[in-house]
Amino acid sequence: xxxxxxxxxxxxxxxxxxxxxxxxxxxxxxxxxxxxxxxxxxxxxxxxxxxxxxxxxxxxxxxxxxxxxxxxxxxxxxxxxxxxxxxxxxxxxxxxxxxxxxxxxxxxxxxxxxxxxxxxxxxxxxxxxxxxxxxxxxxxxxxxxxxxxxxxxxxxxxxxxxxxxxxxxxxxxxxxxxxxxxxxxxxxxxxxxxxxxxxxxxxxxxxxxxxxxxxxxxxxxxxxxxxxxxxxxxxxxxxxxxxxxxxxxxxxxxxxxxxxxxxx
Length: 264
Description:
Strand 4 and strand 5 form a beta hairpin. The strands form two sheets. This protein has a six-stranded mixed β-sheet, sandwiched between helices. Strands 2-1-4-5 form a four-stranded antiparallel β-sheet, with helices on one face. The model has no long low-confidence stretch (mean pLDDT 87). The protein is 36% helix and 23% strand. By secondary structure, it is an alpha/beta fold.
């Protein structure tokens, strides 16, 4: 579903602030893969996600989505193929609009628009059923403004919106990092349910090693703009944090220094 071919990205090239963020990353995601990505600060995780989303152009390499070369496609055109949830719960939704209005906008993504506006009765029934799955009581608050929701409730609604039209690829950019541990666990539970039931190909960045090991069928670790670990299947299911740290040391030649990732 996703193929990255030798992608490279450098910021502020030729200046004192030059930063080589991606150093020839090659990656293939099969249809239905749920891949967690972890690494220390500056490893290239967010740069990778933003490159896939089209936030900036690559210096070199190709990005293929479901066989289509999207390397030169602008971000707004890629949006109809992608679902995305950001780290900040304030992003991805319109705070001054109702829950049902936000969901209606998400449902229209990638479709032809008219000047007519309103949430159809049939849509409301669909939204109620979708919100019930979250188990947060939001199905009874369709007309509540999204800005009144808690961070966890808002991220859960954003997840629904991102997955509503079954995107070819779902991008989760540390979407639980701003939440307290209990709320983060709930949002991850919802994430697992949505991804599994809809069989969505998913790339999830996380700062938490335990979450990276627990969720998904495949784990990738990045370091200094490269992927240095790629485990899946039974090998991943048996992983521990200690195993992952040992693998990192062998692959990178140094110790993993992000206490936040280890201790979360």
